[in-house]
Structure prediction request, 348 residues.
Amino acid sequence: MRWVLSILAIAALAGGSAMGDVNNLNNGAFIAHHPAAMAYSTDPPAEGYYAAFMAGHAITDCEGQVNEIAGSGETKLWFVLAAWTENKVWAGASFGIDYSPGETGAYGIMEYGACRPGAGLEIESPGWPDPGAGVSLVVTDLNWEGNFLPVYFFAGYTYGPGQVQIIENPTLGFCGTANVNNVEFSIAADFRGALGVGGTAGKHVCPPTIIPGACCFDGGNTCQVLLRAECVGMGGHFKGEDTVCAPNPCPTTWACCIGSLCFMLSEDECVNEQGGRWLVDRLCSGVVCADLHVCCLPGNSCVYLTAAECAGAGGAYVTDPLFQSCDPNPCPVSVEGASWGTIKSLYR
Prediction:
């Protein structure tokens, strides 16, 4: 059962926000951060570790993170922070940890727990917080709102050199967050940090920067520079971050009739690769391929039109199955004032 189902059960208690795209949790990171000035005590702070961290030890950017605990023989605090390039609102988090445990290993965990602005639930996988185990968190009243916020704390003892790595929750095969609408957003391995202990360097991660790029619309014939989410949300095709519209990277594709079916293809793909009928300046949304036939227009040009369109253009409409393609052009002679029968007789 997915952990997000727990959020579904309590969704009525978790208020959302209507600001911008704060519920879009793509491009997030989990940072392993050690606030050196925050001393560990066997008596936890009365206000809780979340409030204590936010009151005097919060960071506001990626450069503020500390990924290493120097020395050994002392229990020290560190936190898993959820981070993006802008403020977000979220209601759930899930991850795991991996490390070499015990006196013969690098690290031992003495105390641990969720960091939330209010109440919530904690769902632990078997053995948590042993190496390779995971945990999932949900809120029941106040959401996390902001950036570089703690979702979990650990108090650990360093035995020797090594790392404590943030990994996916092995029970769920998932590492990431969930928004107030119960939508899950995974955090890729490259953006999961690690705490270094005993002289070993940690893993410094930053949320991936969101860079706009070229977005193709109308079968590739219109280009705008947008963010990926904006492009996809508007039904466009994103060409990649930092791409531009000049020169236009969008292929010229128009409706292509292959039999009675219509596809948006380039002329080469349509005519040469598929043997189809390419309809310049037309989209499949306005085309019924079965109604289109060859139309010989004055001036010897050949196009695919409906009977009404062809007549309105002063052309000769061709329904003969022997002449259903404009390649090669079956209209090499002037058709002004000529019937299709006259034109057809020239090819017998």
